[in-house]
Amino acid sequence: MGFPKNQQSNLSNLPPTILFAFLNYSSLTEYENNNKNDFAKISSILIRQFGAPTSSMKASWGASFEWKFENAQIMLNSNRNDNQIILTYLK
Fold it and tell me: Which residue among 7, 51, 60, 72 is least packed, with the fewest CB closer than 10 Å?
């Protein structure tokens, strides 16, 4: 997580300006068995909350959804090469 510069004295009260969340799979087999279902669960929560993604992509390496707002950006990426799903929030 990243917090605004020069405001470290009260971190418990500050919202992050960047947040990364990782779902790591221990192997390619685990990724292949669980990724589609996990990505669908996470993306459905985001779609219910924020509507359809601004952009999306599906490729052999995985998939990507992106939501762009006036004051923030959310990215959800599934990466076969790294065996993980990454959720990124940028303010």
Answer: 60
CB 74, CB 88: distance < 8 Å = yes
Span 50-89, pLDDT tens digits: 999 999 999 999 999 999 999 999 999 999 999 999 999 9
What is the chain's length?
91
Binned at pLDDT 50, 70 and 90, residue 17 comes out as: confident
Q: Report the SS3 class of residue 65.
A: strand
Tokens of 12: 């418990």
Domain extents in the chain: 28-90
Q: Which phi and psi (to 5°) does residue 50 adopt?
A: -120, 0
Q: Which of 60, 53, 52 is nearest to 75 (CA)?
A: 53
Q: How far apart are CA 5 and CA 41, in angstroms?
A: 34
Entry pTM: 0.81
Closest by CA to 55, choosing from 80, 76, 40, is 76
